[in-house]
Amino acid sequence: MKILVLGSGAREHAIVTALQAEDAGHEIVAAPGNAGIARQVETVRLDASNGRLVAGYAADNGVELVVVGPEAPLVAGVADAVRARGIPVFGPGKAAAALEGSKAFAKRIMDDAGVPTGRAITASTRDEVAAALDELGAPHVVKADGLAAGKGVLVTGDREAALAHADHYLQQGPVLVEEYLSGPEVSLFFLADGHDVVPLSPAQDFKRLRDGDEGPNTGGMGAYSPLPWVADRWGSEASFTDEVLDTIALPTVRALEAAGAPFIGLLYCGLVLTPSGVKVIEFNVRFGDPETQVVLPRLRTALSQLLLAAATGGLGRLPYPTFSDEAAVVVVLASEGYPEAAETGRPITGLDAAAAIPGVTIAHAATAELDGGLVATGGRVLGVVGTGADLTAARDAAYAGIRAIRLEGAQYRTDIARAAAEGAAR
Question: Which of 256, 288, 317 is the last residue of a domain?
């Protein structure tokens, strides 16, 4: 099958790697890709957010499946343009992608579907924000309504900091002030074909920049899968995923179907396990980054089969995906200054040595070839993935890989999956 993967990050690199691992003779093209992806498959210079160009390229080059990685092309309606040409595409259309493009829209859908979540107040002025902060109390949760590259959320006990965060994003549109939900967080992906929904394996990510969940929010500094402590609490991973499927994912997809906005693609459920039950913090409409880098290496079902079935309405005819019993941990290597002002253009070395370590693979995020070597081109540069018999072995592999890599001023957390490996939730 000829497959076009749109995007340029570590998520897309993980998708490409999983498709290649099938050894099914797929012809894979990535647009625009990155230096790591280009070492594995053909890459083309194509604006992934331009639906007309993407659809035209796919039609002219015999593409049989388009996989949209990032959220921005989905919110821009790229999937609609591709579907209009009769080409299967894994990714929701613009109407359904508003589930991530607008936090207020997501809350309305959750209300319609009866999905458990926290209270939220939409505010368009500073005075409205202030009143909402007072009504809901501390800790304060303030979210940009639109896309913000994973950095639009602030959780703080400082009312002035919450107001300042709101002031910044009010320049772009409304913000949401939400009830603070307490408990460990879980990311759970669901494949959807507009009607039927199937779960993947849960993961947990780490948003804060520094150890101990300190520092500013980022796009994600690491993740791990599976979650032994979740299986312990629910009796099995399947019991947990079935509960989330029945109470959250399926009602949401069916509510969108009823609203005339069928959801076809990947529904990312950001969950918090509160004392009163599982609740939704947020929805995304694509594979999460960095969770994808630990979920897909454990997938034993052919990824291409799942993506095509979702794109063509055939999920209901497939058995649920299966996963390896092995664990996977990814540690993100970030540039100096990230997330505020990342230093770019610095050389990266040691990747061959890292990749030679048993159980280690590397997902490129922001890299480019320059003068025969690699340089960093953004904030989150690489994800070093370790796999092993358990979380301890996977952590050991990932951190051995991290230590082999050199990037001046690089940042990474040293506590990814540590608590889980020791039997705790975080």
Answer: 317
